[in-house]
Design goal:
This protein has helices at 2-27, 34-53, 62-76, 79-91, 95-127. It is mainly alpha-helical.
C-alpha cells in the first residue's frame, strides 16, 4: 500500500513541478534556471516543515507521511535537473551564473529547510492536543 501512495503522491509532485516550469518559462528569459531554483527552495521549505510537523498528528498514518515527503516533495524537487542545468551553464562558459546557481541553491536550500523546520516546530507547539505525546 505504501508504494501505491508514494506513487500517487509522486505523480502529483511531478505534475506540479512541470506546471511550475511551464509557468516560469513563459516570463523568464534569462540564463538563470529560475524554475528549478524556486521549485527546490519551496520543496526544501515544505519538506523541512513536514519532517517535524506531520509525524506529530495521530490521524496521519505513517504511509501518508512518507507519501507526502518522499512521493510529493521528492518528485517535486529535482536535484538531477539542477545538476544538468549547471553543467549546461558551464558548457556554455557561463561560469558566473553557474557558480551563483550552485551557491544560491546550496545555501538557499539549507536556509529554506531550516526555516521550514522551525515553522514545523512552531506549528507543533501550537497544535497542542492534536499531537502524539
Amino acid at each position: 500500500m505504501n508504494f501505491i501512495l508514494v506513487g500517487i503522491a509522486g505523480i502529483i509532485g511531478a505534475s506540479l513541478r512541470y506546471l511550475l516550469g511551464v509557468y516560469f518559462s513563459q516570463w523568464w528569459l534569462n540564463d538563470f534556471p529560475l524554475a528549478t531554483f524556486v521549485t527546490n527552495m519551496v520543496g526544501s521549505f515544505i519538506l523541512g516543515c513536514f519532517t517535524h510537523f506531520l509525524p506529530r498528528f495521530k490521524s496521519l498514518h505513517p504511509h501518508v507521511i512518507t507519501s507526502l515527503g518522499t512521493g510529493l516533495i521528492g518528485s517535486f524537487t529535482t536535484f538531477s535537473t539542477f545538476s544538468v542545468e549547471t553543467v549546461h551553464l558551464i558548457d556554455a562558459s557561463k561560469w558566473g551564473t553557474a557558480i551563483l546557481y550552485v551557491l544560491l541553491s546550496l545555501w538557499g536550500g539549507l536556509l529554506f529547510s531550516w526555516l521550514g523546520y522551525r515553522l514545523g516546530l512552531k506549528k507543533d507547539a501550537a497544535v497542542g492536543g492534536g499531537v502524539r505525546s
